[in-house]
C-alpha cells in the first residue's frame, strides 16, 4: 500500500511541478475556445430547442470534459513514455509494487489531473456565464469515468509507444477527432443522419452527453444508457491496460 | 541458504538465445563476480533475476522466492544498481531516495538515507536536482537507490564503468563493508583486477553459457605460472621446437612463453641459448585473472 501511495504521490508531484504546462495551459485553451466559438456561433445555433439553454452555457460542460479527457490521457501517456525513453522506468519496475498498484497509481493520478483541469475550466467559465447544476453526482460520475477511461488509454499508449512521435500520433489521430466529433460544440440532433450514427459509435459522445446532463437535466441520450456504455468502455480499457501491465508488455523485455 | 538460485534458465530475443541453460547458486553472504565480454548475457541474466526481463524457461529464486510466482517478495530482497546512468529529472537527490524508499514500502527512512548519503559522499548534494549532478555523482545516487531498503542481496551491473579512481575506491570500500555486514553481493565488471581483489567466487559467461564457476583462489591457482616475455628489436623471432612442450605465442616485437613455475625459467633460457635466439629484453609476469579470462574466452568451448 505504501508503494502505491508513493507512486501516486510522485505522479501528482510530477505534473504539479510543471503546473503552468499541465493545468494552466489547457484551461487557457478551453477558455479561448469558449470565447471564440461563443462569439462566432451564439445566436446561430439553437441547442435543446425550447429548453432555454444558451449556446455559451451549452458549450462549457463540453469544453470542460474535452480538457479533462485530453489531460487525463496526456498525464499517463507522457509519464510512462518519458520514463521508458529516459530509462528511469526501472525505478518503478524493480520495487515490489503489484500490477494493480502500478495501474491504480498511474491512472488515479491522471484522474486527479483530468478532474482539476475540468473543474477549473468550469469555474473559470463562471466568470462569463452562469451555469445551473441539475445533478452533481451525475457530473462527478461522468467526470471520474471519463478521466479513468482516458487515463487507462493513455497508459496503454505510453506502454505501446517507443517514441514520442507515436504518442503525438495517438493524440492527434485518435483522441482529438474523437473529442471533436463527440458533441462538444453541438447537439447531436443538429447533425445529418450519417454523422448522428457516427456520433453514436463514439464513446466520448456518451461521456459528454452524460456530463452535460448533470448541469442541465437535458441530454441527447438517456443518461442511464450513457452511463452503461461509458462504464463498459472504461472497464474494458482499464482491464486491458491491467493485463498489459501484468504481462509486462513492452515494460519487461 | 542460497541468496540466488538459477535453474536451467533460457532467454530469447527473437531468434537470438541470449542466455542458454544457465544454472547457478550464489550462497548467502558471498561476493560473487559475473564476468564475460560484451554480449555474453550478463545483463540479460541480471535483468531476469531482478524482474526487468521475463524468464522464458527455467526458474530463478531470490532468498527462496521465485522471481515470477512470488515477485513481490523476491524484489523486496534485491537491490539493483543498473548499468545505464538513469535518473528522474524532476527530483532532487533526497526526493529520489525518499520516493525509492516508499516504492519499497518504507515510509520513514530518513536516518538510513542520511547514512547512505554520508557513506557515498552525497550529503552536500542532497537538495541538488538530479540533472545538475556529474556522471560520477549520478552513479553514486544509483548505488544509494539500490540500498534504501537495506536489501540482503545487492546486484551491481558494471557500477564503476566510466567512474574516476576516487569514487571507485570509495565505492568498493563501502560495498566491501556491506558484504562484511552479511549482504550478498553480485558484481559484473569489465575491470578484472576489481573482480580478482573483491570476489570470493567468479562465474564466466560466454555466448550465453556459464562456462566457468570457481573460487577466485582456485581460478588463479589453475592458471598458476609465469609468462616469459621476450622482446626482440629486429622483430625476427622463431622459437625453437624444443620449446613446444610449453605454451608459446608470437606477439608484436617478440614472443611469450608460459611456464608452470619458476624452476622452468632456466630450462627455457637454456633452450633459447642452444637455438642461439638473441633477445633485447626479458620480462617475467605472474599470471592473473585476466589471463584466465582470456584463455577461457579463447578456449575451444564455443558457447
Q: What's the topology here?
A:
The complex is a heterodimer of chains A (253) and B (303).
Chain A: H1 2-17, H2 19-41, H3 55-86, H4 90-93, H5 99-125, H6 136-160, H7 164-180, H8 193-200, H9 203-216, H10 223-247
Chain B: E1 2-13, E2 16-27, E3 31-35, H1 42-50, E4 57-62, E5 65-66, H2 71-76, E6 78-81, H3 93-103, H4 110-119, H5 135-147, E7 153-157, H6 165-180, E8 184-188, H7 192-198, E9 201-206, E10 209-215, H8 216-222, E11 226-231, E12 247-251, E13 254-259, H9 263-274, E14 281-286, H10 289-298
Q: What would a concise description of this structure say?
A:
With 253 residues, chain A is mostly helical. Chain A has helices spanning 2-17, 19-41, 55-86, 90-93, 99-125, 136-160, 164-180, 193-200, 203-216, 223-247.
Number of strands of chain A: 0
| End-to-end distance of chain A | 26 Å
* Rg for CA atoms of chain A: 18 Å
Main sheet of chain B?
6 strands, mixed
- Helix content, binned percent of chain B: 25-40%
Shape of chain B: elongated
Mean pLDDT of chain B: 86
Counted beta strands of chain B: 14
Structural domain count of chain B: 3
DSSP summary: helix tally of chain A: 10
Question: How is the CATH topology of the largest domain in chain B named?
Answer: Rossmann fold
Amino acid at each position: 500500500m505504501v508503494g502505491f501511495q508513493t507512486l501516486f504521490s510522485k505522479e501528482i508531484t510530477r505534473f504539479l511541478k510543471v503546473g503552468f504546462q499541465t493545468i494552466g495551459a489547457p484551461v487557457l485553451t478551453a477558455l479561448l475556445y469558449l470565447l471564440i466559438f461563443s462569439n462566432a456561433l451564439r445566436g446561430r445555433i439553437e441547442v435543446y430547442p425550447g429548453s432555454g439553454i444558451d449556446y455559451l452555457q451549452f458549450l462549457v460542460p463540453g469544453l470542460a470534459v474535452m480538457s479533462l479527457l485530453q489531460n487525463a490521457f496526456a498525464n499517463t501517456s507522457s509519464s510512462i513514455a518519458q520514463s521508458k525513453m529516459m530509462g528511469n522506468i526501472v525505478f518503478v519496475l524493480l520495487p515490489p509494487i503489484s500490477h494493480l498498484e502500478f495501474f491504480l497509481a498511474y491512472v488515479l493520478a491522471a484522474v486527479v489531473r483530468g478532474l482539476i483541469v475540468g473543474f477549473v475550466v468550469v469555474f473559470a467559465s463562471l466568470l462569463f456565464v452562469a451555469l445551473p447544476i441539475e445533478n452533481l453526482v451525475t457530473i462527478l460520475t461522468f467526470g471520474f469515468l471519463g478521466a479513468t477511461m482516458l487515463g487507462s488509454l493513455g497508459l496503454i499508449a505510453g506502454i505501446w509507444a517507443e517514441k514520442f512521435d507515436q504518442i503525438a500520433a495517438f493524440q492527434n489521430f485518435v483522441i482529438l477527432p474523437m473529442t471533436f466529433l463527440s458533441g462538444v460544440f453541438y447537439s447531436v440532433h443538429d447533425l445529418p443522419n450519417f454523422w448522428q450514427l457516427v456520433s453514436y459509435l463514439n464513446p466520448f459522445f456518451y461521456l459528454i452527453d452524460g456530463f452535460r446532463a448533470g448541469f442541465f437535466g437535458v441530454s441527447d441520450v438517456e443518461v442511464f444508457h450513457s452511463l452503461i456504455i461509458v462504464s463498459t468502455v472504461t472497464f474494458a480499457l482499464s482491464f486491458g491496460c491491467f493485463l498489459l501491465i501484468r504481462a509486462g508488455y513492452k515494460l519487461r523485455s | 541458504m542460497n541468496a540466488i538460485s538459477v535453474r536451467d534458465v533460457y532467454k530469447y530475443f527473437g531468434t537470438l538465445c541470449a542466455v542458454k541453460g544457465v544454472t547457478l547458486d550464489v550462497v548467502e553472504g558471498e561476493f560473487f563476480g559475473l564476468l564475460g565480454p560484451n554480449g555474453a548475457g550478463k545483463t540479460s541474466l541480471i535483468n531476469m533475476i531482478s524482474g526487468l526481463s521475463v524468464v522464458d524457461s527455467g526458474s530463478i529464486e531470490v532468498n527462496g522466492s521465485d522471481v515470477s510466482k512470488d515477485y513481490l517478495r523476491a524484489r523486496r530482497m534485491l537491490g539493483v544498481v543498473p548499468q545505464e546512468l538513469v535518473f528522474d529529472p524532476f527530483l532532487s537527490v533526497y526526493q529520489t531516495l525518499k520516493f525509492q524508499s516508499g516504492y519499497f514500502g518504507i515510509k520513514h527512512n530518513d536516518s538510513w538515507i542520511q547514512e547512505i548519503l554520508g557513506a557515498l559522499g552525497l550529503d552536500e548534494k542532497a537538495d541538488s536536482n538530479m540533472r545538475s549532478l556529474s556522471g560520477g555523482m549520478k552513479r553514486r545516487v544509483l548505488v544509494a537507490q539500490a540500498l534504501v531498503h537495506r536489501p540482503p542481496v545487492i546486484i551491481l551491473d558494471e557500477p564503476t564503468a566510466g567512474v574516476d579512481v576516487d569514487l571507485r575506491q570509495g565505492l568498493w570500500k563501502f560495498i566491501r563493508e556491506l558484504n562484511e555486514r552479511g549482504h550478498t553481493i553480485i558484481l559484473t565488471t569489465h575491470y578484472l583486477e576489481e573482480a580478482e581483489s573483491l570476489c570470493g567466487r567468479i562465474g564466466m559467461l560466454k555466448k550465453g553459457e556459464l562456462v566457468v564457476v570457481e573460487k577466485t583462489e582456485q581460478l588463479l591457482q589453475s592458471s598458476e605460472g609465469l609468462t616469459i616475455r621476450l622482446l626482440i628489436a629486429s622483430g625476427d623471432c622463431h622459437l625453437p621446437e624444443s620449446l613446444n612442450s610449453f605454451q608459446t605465442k608470437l606477439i608484436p616485437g617478440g614472443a611469450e612463453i608460459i611456464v608452470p613455475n619458476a624452476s622452468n625459467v632456466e630450462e627455457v633460457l637454456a633452450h633459447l641459448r642452444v637455438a642461439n635466439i638473441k633477445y633485447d629484453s626479458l620480462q617475467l609476469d605472474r599470471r592473473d585473472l585476466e589471463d584466465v579470462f582470456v584463455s577461457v574466452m579463447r578456449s575451444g568451448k564455443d558457447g
